[in-house]
Amino acid sequence: MSCFRLHPVEWNIGEVAGHLAAHCLRRGTEPHHVRENETLLDQFSAELDSIGVERHWPAPAGY
């Protein structure tokens, strides 16, 4: 049962990695530069938010 619950996390990691690769190719940069540069990280985070990629654990029901 626990492996089943990990699938969304695994899929999310793959989804973000793919978007990061495309983001870097479009901007001519490297993934580590995105992580090290606050402006680049903010731009990438905003891109993920705009397409609906979850970046946080969902709040438990009732919170």
Instruction: Give average pLDDT, whole number.
Output: 89
* Amount of beta strand: under 5%
What is the molecular shape? globular
Which structural class fits the helix and strand makeup? mainly alpha
Rounded to the nearest angstrom, the distance between the terminal CA atoms is 25 Å
**Low-pLDDT ranges:** none
Q: What is Rg?
A: 14 Å
Order of helices and strands: HHH
Determine the fraction of residues in helical runs and give it as a percent range.
Answer: over 70%
Number of strands: 0
Largest sheet: none
| Count of alpha/pi helices | 3
Q: How would you describe this structure to a colleague?
A:
The protein is mainly α and about 60 residues long. About 70% of the residues lie in helices and about 0% in strands. The chain contains 3 helices and no strands. The longest helix has 26 residues, at about 1-25.
